[in-house]
Amino acid sequence: MRRHPRACRRAETGDARRRQGKSETGGHVAGHLDAAVGAAREGRRVVGGLPHGRAGRQDAEEIVSAALQSRTAFILANTSVLTPPHVPEIRLHLADEAHDLWHRTEEELETIGLPPPFWAFAWAGGQGLARHILDAPESVRGRRVLDLASGSGLVAIAAAMAGATSVTANDIDPFSEAAVALNARVNAVEPSFDNRDLTGDPALAASFDVVLAGDVFYDRELAGALTPWLQNLAEAGKTVLVGDPGRAYLPKERLEAMSVHEVAVTRALEDMEVKRTTVWRFAA
Known about the structure:
The strands form three sheets. The chain has a seven-stranded mixed β-sheet, sandwiched between helices. The chain has a two-stranded antiparallel sheet with strand order 1-2. A two-stranded antiparallel sheet has the order 3-4. It contains nine helices and eleven strands. It has 284 residues and is of the alpha/beta class. Helices cover 34% and strands 19% of the residues.
């Protein structure tokens, strides 16, 4: 039986988001690019070859550009611009049944070095949270916003459209950065991107007014790390909103329901056609 990437959204999957991404061209090229990007972001110069035989000293901008171009090309080849059913105001580069990426199993994706493509789907939790933000723009208007585990950038884009002063999309998957850039361009917004694992960063409290997280409680380990961190941010006076369609590891305490959404989903992803999604606020 073929396993769809949806399996990684279910309980007991392990920390799928923490796998390092590689490009469609295979592990060697993508691994080199990832190492180069890391060096570039730290301000170091790199000696070595890039794809197509390029060699020698490369400056940081060229290295980052090469990596993003590779991932951008992959996303463009495997997605179409579609509208999530619960947030028709927003357009995203998404995989659908017409694309090979939709049909590939988790094992096949690992074989070619591609981490689970969360960025290629508009998950129910993210759709519900994005809808809430657009319907209640005062929740983010004039405020500094972080979209945690951004994936496609759906929630970050909604926050930007709703009038946030600044929006930062955060995800450790290197493909997410390319996806967010493409999707932001389609929607004429300009969120910034941060590829670090911010969990537990004590300096974060001073950087943002609102923290958003769509559909992040599907994995025991990830939820165990996120829950106390998000709670601490709420206790520090930050607004923390999460969109969740009943995932296994949603915290059971200190959550206040803000809105409920019946989100149309694809049966191939969720084994049902509608997911009831609640937007919760972490209580201080």
